[in-house]
Amino acid sequence: MLNFLLEQTGRGIDMTQASESRRSAGSFERDPGPVRIGWLGARGVRGALLAALTVWATATVLAAPVVETESGRVAGSQSHEIAIFRGLPYAAPPVGALRWRAPRPAAVWTGTRDAVKVGNACPQKRGLSLEGGGDPGTLDEDCLNLNVFTPRAERGAHLPVMVWLHGGALIFGAGGLPLYDGAALARQGAVVVTVNYRLGPLGFFVHPAIEREAPGGAVNFGLLDQIAALQWVRRNIAAFGGDPTNVTLFGQSAGAQSVLALMSSPLSRDLMQRAIVQSAYGLPARRRAKARETGVRVASAVGLPGADASAEQLRAVSAEQLAALEGNELSLAPSFIVGDPVVPVTPVQAFRAGKQAKIPLLIGSNSDETSVALAFGIQPAQLIKKLGIGGVLVRPLYRDVKDDAELGRQVVRDAVFTSFARRIAVLHAAQAPVWRYYFSRVPDGLRGRQPGVQHGGEVPAVFGTADLCACTGATPTDGDRTASQAVATRWVGFARHGRPDVPGAPAWPADGKFKNVLLEFGDEQVVRTEFMRHRLNSFIAAGNLLGP
After folding, report:
1. Which residues are catalytic?
2. CATH number, domain with residue 217
């Protein structure tokens, strides 16, 4: 029953059916020119002082934060007290012969590179990011860039670093979306980094021709990008005021899956000191052999001779054509490929074996995660009908729920998200401290309009961007902003100290195998013990029987 449910909510979702050119290279020289002010004449000391003050104020406005990176000098912008650097390349463009290869080092430049504008987003089907957080802007394969938000762009500040991996089913999204603007979090005293990585068949792809170039080699190229970004952070973030020995990796949905994968990967376990996992999902893994079959179908779909297509032919296909492919048979979304050096085993297998990074973990989910299934045409009521005898078995776990649609909504939420958070928490608690949360505070303007906090609904609260992104469907209230501040304070406190406890807020007990406890972010922050114990244990037991 659980296997059927997971297939319906993962494999059965056509993530590409929900409803350009390369940006010209700008000059790396930043020269605003001298500030000129007309001669005021003989107006005495008052006039001279006014002139001096005008020059000082104008120069202050024009002044831009400048940082020296390993590739060259960059000049960002200042937003109030936060220095912002956008579109910083952390790797070479993965174009031409570098498509479907591990990322290479970024080129070195001379002069000062302008870091004011958001860089290119990775190729994806247009419109999906607009529905999920804003306009990604220019789409181009030359997209391996990141953004840095810092309250102190100076060496020696030793601020905690928070590196964000965006969601989007591994087929859409971008680190530069307004939803992920890191300024508000940075004002809490952290250096925030948001990252682009390759998506869809450009980021996760297996084909016989590519495998012949590197037998047994990596095929999760998007994860290799994320690892390269973390390595860039380790080498460069001190210049932006960050502490390279105190890095928190955090992400939502596919970004949360990425966090778990990188915690589990032998290539990246040592690149982070803490982790935050928001709404990770327990869906069936994509094995390498099956992913290869998908790759062959992709080659056929773009007019090439399937398994006989050459690497040169595949690399000659435009990024736009690959990103536009639709249909479950042509997509691996929303899963990684298991069976390469990056993801040799599933995260659950790694956590079971105690081979994950042994670092503090914060993990949780929302009260209406099923909204992601509804967005892609999956009807919970129909799922309950299709379950047959399985539907009869789950009903005792939800005795107060009579309506099939509501039952389906809660079953999908708990089987795929709520129980998965608990499952990972129990496994990780044997190695390192873990804190679990449940996010149920619906924005004031949406109450009565939706049954809970939708998939991704906590992200504007974490980043404090509800006003900026205009993506929540309601105008934020002061109550919403206060609640968001409380969440952000917890997240940054965790990044700083490795514990999510902060002054003036309830103590947040750690979760564990024999201590089922979490913090619910509702209208108040409330500690819940034995939260959904029977139903979560049932889904976890079923998942253990079915395998990772």
Report:
1. 253, 369, 455
2. 3.40.50.1820
